[in-house]
Amino acid sequence: MTDSASTAPAHPGLPATGRSTAELLADLAALRAADLPTRGRRTTAYVYDSGRPEVRAAAEQAYLAMLEVNGLDPTAFPSVVALERQVVGATAARLGGDDATPGIFTSGGTESIILAVKAARDARPDLTDPELVIPATAHAAFHKAGAYLGVRVVSTPVDPATFRADPDAMAAARTDRTVLVVASAPSYAHGVIDPVAEIAADAARRGIPCHVDACVGGWLLPWLADAGAPVPAFDLSVPGVTSLSCDLHKFGYAPKGASVLLFRDEAMRLRAYYACAVWPGYTVVNPTVQSSKGAGPLAGAWATMQALGEDGYRELGRAALAATARVIEGVKAIEGLTVLGSPDATLVALGTDADLDLFALADESRARGFFLQPQLSVDGLPANLHLTLTGVSAEGVEDLLAVLAESADAVRPLGPPRPPADIVALLEQVDLTELDNATFAALLPAAGIDLSSADGPARMAPVNRLLDALPPAVRELIATRFLSALYRPPLGG
């Protein structure tokens, strides 16, 4: 070691000497001070809370018990196989399959979707230009899968009133190069279930696989049906559905990193796998995109399912359904606010009239303690605020409705939203790919973004108005550049 290396000052990420657990946990608590709350009922996106401390404790302890187990080689750690069989089997049993249904436990919905697209692509090795047909409301993960796997994504319009996929439009978009068609149950943006039976039937007639994205609804909809909700058939029981994804870290209330991908037959699951024996190390065979992976999320999902049981999930489903019905009814009484479509699940999209600034409403609601997720307009679909209502949401519905009413009253005098036309024009002319991080960061304050604040932008309405006024391709460039700048310490303060 050189003298300069031995005398270099310690980096804050790696101190010169080890620190106590108490110090570390205190630091973590300080770092999390600006985070959205992960428990309770005031964060209506990103987190799913069962509201049952004993269930969380079971998941946490199971997660920690498997923290060092590596899912890379199930022959070395057979516990992984035993747990995955139970988790996949239980999921399949609720979604039109049984213990014999082939499936894969993955790290999340995006990985499940990528693997479903890979399996469909690899089933057609004769094609050099494969295509994937989706409704415009399909999750961004399908676009990501297409970009990663070299599959062209063909997006089709949805019904502008119901926000459901249009089977005729999807049928018209299919070609000899189509390797997979997609339906959502429900779509994340509006909480509505696409006409799965029609989409799958047409795909089957043409010999094309059909994937149902039930990442957000797969583990919710059966319990809503048990509670009396009218849930149309959407799972593997539907003829023509060949694969289905279901996240357990959403309405399964498991720790993050838990999703299941189900296949109708073993041949398709095998195509999702990856194997490599052309290097001098151990033979690689992976059911997922990841190779080495901790077994904590799998154990956490298993423990959550065991701790809640059918009666626990049924009760949480009833509570989430009641909360959703109350929100839909309560929104009718708030001037300028409306529910888009007719949600089939406990996901609600709130729209506003032309005189009520949607993004300012989100800021006002957050200032009053409720986070609502802004969703931008695209393909003629209006911008809206997303709410995911869970088993604990019923306890806070009246508070939420009161905050929405107060926030609407506060925003209404501001008048219609006014996108910054000068900034929009500038960004449409500038080649964002040519800017370095420092130059890009210098543009951000004009859009209301302050990277020097550890708490992030206090008000996001100016940013969201700007993004909503720009074409999606420009939004994507800005978002990626922003992420790059955000993770650069010199630009972050």
From TrEMBL:
SUPFAM superfamilies: PLP-dependent transferases (SSF53383). Coiled coil: none annotated. One of its GO terms (molecular function) is transaminase activity. Its cofactor is pyridoxal 5'-phosphate. Keywords: Aminotransferase, Lyase, Pyridoxal phosphate, Transferase. Gene3D superfamilies: Aspartate Aminotransferase, domain 1, Type I PLP-dependent aspartate aminotransferase-like (Major domain). Belongs to the group II decarboxylase family. Sphingosine-1-phosphate lyase subfamily. This is Aspartate aminotransferase family protein. It comes from Streptacidiphilus alkalitolerans.
